Amino acid sequence: MYGWMVTARRYEERLQEEYLEGKQPAFDISAGPIPGELHLAAGQEAAAAGVCAHLRDDDTVTAPHRPHHVAIAKGVDLERMTAEIFGRRTGLCKGKGGHMHLFDPDVNFAGSGIIAEGCPPAVGAALAAKKRGEDSVAVAYLGEGAISQGGFLESLNLAAVHDLPVVFVIEDNDWAISMPKERVTDVKNGAQRADGFDMPGIRVDHDDAVAIYDAAGEAVGRARDGNGPTLLEVQVHRRMGHFMGDAEGYRPDADTERAKQRDSIERMETTLRNEGVDESTIDDIRDRSHERVEGAIEWAKDQPEPDPEEAYEDVFSNPPAGWTPTSEPAEPVGGDD
Amino acid sequence: MAEADETEQTDGAESTTGRELTMSRAMVDAIAAEMRTDDDVFVLGEDVADYGGIFDSTEGLLDEFGREKIMDVPISETGFIGAAVGAAQAGMRPIAELMFVDFFGVGMDQIYNQMAKNTYMSGGSVNVPMVLMTAVGGAYNDAAQHSQTLYGTFAHLPGMKVVVPSTAYDAKGLMHTAIRDDDPVVYMFHKRLMGIGWMPAPAGPKTPVPEDDYTIEFGEADVKREGDDVTVVTLGLHVHRALEAADELDGAVDTEVIDLRTLVPLDTETVLESVRKTGRLLVVDEDYHSFGVSGEIIARATEGALDDLSAVGRVTMPDAPIPYARPLEQEVNPGTEDIVEAVRDLAGTADE
To answer: How much is the ipTM here?
Structure first.
């Protein structure tokens, strides 16, 4: 778990550096080697490690728009994921998806850039497992800002009435872009939403990967044993803006500072030391993680960009006969009179 | 996020009012003016208060009007767009912001089954005087769920007026008209035109904007550039690209550029007058190719001026979701050079 966490943290530090290249001093979102928006998850690593430690490749994870830490813990191919973020042809999605829309069917990982919209597909994956008599489970990640969204609440209900093997994981980082949690909901914590669906709701108050691991073990075990869904909420911290370039003018400095002090990685290191793991082992894990990240980034940057005409491929897996994405005549009609 | 309120765009326009505004400032100017004169006007949406709107569409309003009037809402598009419908039916004039038009799917039932239809279904006994404003457009590599320009989707479904400003001057006038309108108005602004610090705009959208209130009537297209050879009909960001293309072709092809400004109602007459003169029509649309604005404009032109037409064409987003990688997005998003080439083809000057 510690290895995943430091890999994720280092990965995001390096992505941040790469992303800002060419975008400074005046931030221009369309400049630099990494296209589009970039939402980093620094401070949320424990939520990924503590839950995904219980998962197998045949278990499904749906991630929201802040997906890298979860993808790493789920075992998504790091090289190809990085190539995707750089918009390269050998990326997971051939450069078509980008960082919010990562798909790796080899480990049943899928993303979505729309809030809470990963919940219904996770319910669907759980439904498929149940119908086929398999013991795989599905995990849907969402933020605390998403708990008012219809898609989430409808998913809880559907999973509950059909006793589906799904775990909903709320990563509570206290902020939905500029909205602090207390202005999003009047319930003290999102796990209380479970009560309305007669489903177990568990909250882990500290971003402690071991505590999350224990709680998630219970939830994933319940799902795998055929005892239905669980809503698990874990406290994490958003160390950065909502997206790269977000100056966070709406956020009190003290809150940002507090988030940085409550570091799940430092907490995990303390736990390891207390368990008798020696310093050189910790250093070794960290060094190997950093090497792995560097290797993925170097590999990705060497990959080719897609050819423009590849934009027209993959609209269908079985393109209708004669279909083209423009249906235009080869030559315009008229024009030579 | 915006470090600077203004971009470095220079459109060369002389201000007659002593001030030029970015499109976002012009929209805010109109909203603020309407809120000062009508207590029933209020704004609700995600990140509209402290943040001022992700694309600066409500920047600064919180300071003057407070949280009761500039309402941040939980992420729940069905809930808050539907609440705007209810408040409008109760006689208020809400302005709801759907952050990215791509998110319409989450709350679409409230939009097209309630907001758009309640006037009709009630036999006219109920009306829905609200504005739904939303950001459209790509060109910064945000991929398929954050880059669409769904003009056709909203214009296709009856009951909503659909407005697409291309300049700050129009943005203010059309916003005044939208807020005062007794029907639901979908106000679609292109991100690239807003003048946000982190997303530089092309030259053009920043224009002189009068201090005083003024309205622009819906259904009046704007002939941005007169020409005799080819008519280019477009809207939003692509007005500026079409003008750039026309300048590039100057001397070879005399291009007329029409900015539709509103899709519902649609100013068919201005389009027909132009194609009767030029005989050649090109529609440029950042929305998908099929079943959309381009097909509609060409259909109306053929219905109304078939005998005058010698050539038609369109430059559009292909029928593929919008890709992420730069070479792919540049391929599908209609650029100035695509317009130049299409105009040349239509004018029969491709080989000259």
So the answer is: 0.88
Mark which residues 294-313 of B lie under 8 Å from A by CB. Answer: 309-313
> Per the CB < 8 Å rule, is B79 touching A150?
yes
d(CA A135, CA A258): 41
pLDDT in tens, A64-101: 999 999 999 999 999 999 999 999 999 999 999 999 99
Q: How far apart are the first and last CA of chain A?
A: 72
Name the burial class of residue A322, with classes exposed (0-12), middle (13-18) and buried (19+) by CB atoms within 10 angstroms of its CB: exposed
Local confidence band at A40 (pLDDT 50, 70, 90 cut-offs): very high
Report the residue of B75, B192, B310, B326 to disrupt the A interface, i.e. the one with the largest count of A CBs within 10 Å. B75
Q: Is A188 exposed, middle or buried (0-12, 13-18, 19+ CB in 10 A)?
A: exposed
Chain A partners within 8 Å of B342 (Cβ): 332
Among B337, B271, B336, B260, smallest CA distance to B308 is for B271
User: Which amino acid is it at A255?
Assistant: D
Looking at the complex, report in whole angstroms how far the Cα of residue B80 sits from the nearest Cα belonging to chain A: 11
Handedness of CA A243, A246, A250, A255 (dihedral sign): positive
Flag whether residue B199 sits within 8 Å of chain A, measured between CB atoms: yes
Task: Record the pTM.
Answer: 0.91
* B325/A315 Cβ within 8 A: no
